[in-house]
Design goal:
15% strand, ATP binding, elongated, PInositol-4/5-P-5/4-kinase, 2 domains, alpha+beta, single chain
């Protein structure tokens, strides 16, 4: 699953937010790069929420004066809410489709759904900026969740 975040140059298009995996991968890569360059005391101040880490920016991740972590100028609470909304929609929408055997082609499917803030005939209204949510191999992952006994309500 992935949410796309536009750069500032794409501000004419609808805003979007990244998936947890993309966010973690980019943040992890940036953090790893910073750790190689920074002294050990600097690493501690960058990872600690309160204290001298306020106002620091690491790649696209930043911490404002109030202590709120941002990613590409989108607050982490907004990202979490949008991801939860996207996952809830995807899992709920998928449960209405009939179950079938998983095919190799199911692993190559990428679904992208646009979530306008006012809602649409497919998506609910929400209080976030407009965003696009990408789901990778939804049928295959539904199969794996069922295989390992993860119920949809547990997943949400």
């Amino acid at each position: 699953m992935e949410l796309e975040v536009p750069d500032e140059a794409e501000s004419a298009e609808a805003g979007a937010v990244p998936s947890e995996a993309a966010w973690a991968a980019e943040s992890g890569a940036a953090a790893g790069l910073a750790q190689k360059k920074a002294a050990p005391t600097e690493v501690l101040s960058m990872t600690a929420q309160p204290g001298p880490g306020h106002g620091k920016k690491l790649g696209h991740r930043g911490v404002d004066a109030s202590g709120e972590t941002t990613y590409k100028k989108t607050t982490s609470s907004t990202l979490k809410g949008a991801i939860q909304l996207g996952i809830g929609y995807t899992v709920g929408h998928l449960s209405s489709k009939p179950e079938r055997d998983v095919l190799m082609q199911d692993f190559y499917v990428v679904e992208s759904i646009f979530f306008p803030s006012e809602g649409s005939n497919l998506t609910p209204a929400h209080h976030f900026q407009d965003f696009r949510f990408k789901t990778y191999a939804p049928v295959a992952f539904r199969y794996f969740r069922e295989l390992f006994g993860i119920r949809p309500d547990d997943y949400l």
